[in-house]
Amino acid sequence: MNRQITYIDLFAGAGGFSEGFKRAGFEPVAHIEVDTSCCYTLKTRLSYYYLKESNCLEEYIRYLRGEINRTQLYSLIPSPVFDSVINLAISDENNPRIFEKIDQLKGERNIDIIIGGPPCQAYSIIGRARDENGMQGDPRNYLYLQYGRFLKQYDPKLFIFENVKGILSAERGRYFKNIKRYFRSLGYNLEPFDLNAHEFGVLQKRERIMIIGWKKEMDLSIGEINGQEELSYYKVRSVLEDLPKLSAGEGKDKYTHYSKGNNDYLVFSKIRDDIDVLTQHVARPHTDQDKEIYRIAVQKWKSNNERLIYKDLPERLKTHRNQNTFYDRFKVVADDLSFSQTVVAHIAKDGHYYIHPDIEQNRSISVREAARLQSFPDDYYFEGKREGITRTSAFRQIGNAVPPLMIEKIAKKLKDYLV
Questions:
Q1: How confident is the model at residue 211 (pLDDT cuts 50, 70, 90)?
Q2: What is the spatial distance between Cα 165 and Cα 193, in angstroms, rounded to a whole number?
Q3: Distance (Å, rounded) from C-alpha 232 to C-alpha 279?
Q4: What is the C-alpha separation between 5 and 126, in angstroms, rounded?
Q5: Contact (Cβ atoms closer than 8 angstroms) between residue 272 and residue 262
Q6: Rounded mean pLDDT of 171-180?
Q7: Torsion-angle region of residue 375: left (phi > 0), alpha (psi -120 to 50) or beta?
């Protein structure tokens, strides 16, 4: 087929959704994202693809090595390549401007599919529990209406609306009923799929709802969407074992050598490729008290496969009054399991829930280790507003992302309905 299959990525974030669709052979028309750091990340990834497709990938490698800066990298890319990144909030006020930009980008082409996941805090069970009003007044509850504005404007054949499992139970199911009613009123049938990233080869337990919609006149039924990967023989150590050892506060933002060769999982997941350049293997610093807790947590797991319960810590190490909720606030990323705990945006605030399993390193996981648990390739660079080490911003982007490996497999299945 010669025709490009096009998509618009809403609430694009760091580009996990777009990466999966790009790998599956889809062509992006626009990425809409309000966060400036994420937009730089998207532009850097577009630079990678432009240079790769132009047989000039060495220039991108020079950037990863720190031989050229971001401004110099972007100067190598024709400016229209970056036009697809639209740094605006999706809203009734901004949508006319966004539509105008998209119309210029797409030209005479139709939009085949719209993808994206609105911010999920309003539907998150934890988010509702922490908010005194249960997130009832949060405007993010109604971002599905904004998503629908784009469906009405571009009439794609398919869409994917990604969110947390709590979207089904929020307000006793009322929100999801409203979502179904609204999307159906726009001419779509839809089906929610309860998926776990681990089933798609990601070494992480990450449950998400993928609402897939299709035009009613297509008269099709979306079959099972699952990876059914038999990957229990891969362990979390597969994404840790080839990385240089770090102590808390150590690491390099640009160009770090691997300590070991490739392994089967890194090849399967496309985390390591021919570029073989390691960046952002940077660990946050920790207090002596935190490091003592980390040692206790690792010892418990290594000795008895036992998780640390906060209330069981020595009194001198307890700083939180509330010992009955979030009792597992300190948790080891167990390298002998076939998946880790879910990587979430809170990792940008502290690393207590993501303790590295090597007691000698005695730290939380690095930016690159978190990205690998999300299945991002090592040549994927997470930017900040300013150039340089962007640890906090990178952690937040990674925690909010969807795993590219999972999305690639879903995109390949949906492609069958569009060819």
A1: very high
A2: 10
A3: 28
A4: 37
A5: yes
A6: 90
A7: left
Residue 129 has pLDDT above 50, yes or no: no
Q: What is the dihedral of CA 111, 113, 117, 118, to 10 degrees?
A: 40
Output the pTM of the full model. 0.93
Q: Rounded to an integer, what is the distance from CA 309 to the centroid of its chain?
A: 28
Rounded distance between C-alpha atoms, residue 75 and residue 339, angstroms: 40
User: How much is the pLDDT for 318?
Assistant: 87
Q: Per-residue DSSP letters for 273-342? A: -SS--B--EE-----HHHHHHHHHHHHHHHHHS-PPPGGGS-GGG---S--SSSTT-S-B--TTSSSBPP
Quick one: tokens of 194? 């309860």
Which of the residues are catalytic? 120
Contact 6, 111 (CB under 8 A): yes
User: How many other β-carbons are positioned within 10 Å of the β-carbon of residue 199?
Assistant: 18
pLDDT score recorded for residue 151: 98
Residue 130: the pLDDT is 46
pLDDT in tens, 274-303: 888 999 999 999 999 999 999 999 999 999
Q: How far from each other are the two terminal CA atoms of the chain, in whole angstroms?
A: 7
3-class state of residue 72 by DSSP: helix
235 Cβ partners below 8 Å, 6+ apart?
203, 335, 336, 337, 338
The CA distances from residue 256 to 48, 259, 367, 378, in Å, are: 19, 9, 13, 11
Overall size of the chain counted in residues:
419
Whole-angstrom distance, CA of residue 182 vs CA of residue 188? 9
Half-sphere exposure of residue 151, counting CA atoms within 13 Å on the CB side? 25
For residue 25 the two structure tokens come to 């052979």
Per-residue pLDDT reduced to its tens digit, 71-124: 999 999 999 999 999 999 999 999 999 999 999 999 999 999 999 999 865 554
Which among 378, 362, 369, 375 has a CA at the least distance from the CA of 401? 375
Element (H, E) at 5: strand 5-10
pLDDT digits (tens, 9 = 90+) for 29-65: 999 999 999 999 999 999 999 999 999 999 999 999 9
Among 275, 184, 201, 279, residue whose Cα is nearest residue 236: 201
Q: pLDDT by residue (tens digit) across 8-19?
A: 999 999 999 999
Spatial distance between the Cα atoms of 334 and 332, rounded to a whole number of angstroms: 5
